[in-house]
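Cross-check.
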Amino acid sequence: MDLTNSTQPAVSTATATVSAPPAPLSLALVVASDREGRFAPVVADWFLSRLAEREDFAVSVVDLAEVDLPTSLSYDPSPAVRAELAKVTPVLDAADAFVVLTPEYNHSFPAALKNLIDRHYTEWQAKPVGFVSYGGISGGLRAVEQLRQVFAEMHAVTVRDTVSFPHAHAQFDEDGRHRDPAGPEGAAKALLDQLAWWAHALRDAKSVRPYGA
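Predicted model, tokenized:
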């Protein structure tokens, strides 16, 4: 019996396929403060510099200081209100994930942010939300804890880790650079890693089965 061929490893003629990397996640950074003299741009620029080092996010900014939405809600907004919503609603709808950058005002978050949240619903659903906060002694964390309850009602998923800046003005120099960046940079990485995991998981799940609230 000729056993020559039986000892040779089988050679596959199939061509190996290489999976394409997943498309970047669309991330909407919501800058919540519209207060005169706000510190938000300093923190936002710092956080955007962290995002610039990552290839897994494509970032859009929703700055509520640039959106003029009245606090009175209506099921039939005026043309002027519709024009303002047109600046933000498509960005929120297209997003796979959100980061809300908020100060803390009187143990809570700005009215402009609540107004934005309340004017939308499906745009938030089954998407992850991360938080960057700043303020006095609490670093904005009391505002963040309230926001977790609000976003739960919107069927969004808030990630555990946050980036917070207590006594924020003292943490940055006059050029907007953080004076001791190691800790905040590590916190930002943890936040974005968690956000990316949830965003991929939820995006993949919704591609198979639409979310039903």
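The chain is about 40% helix and 15% strand. Strands lie at 25-31, 57-63, 97-103, 128-135, 157-158, 163-166. Passed to J.P. for a second look.
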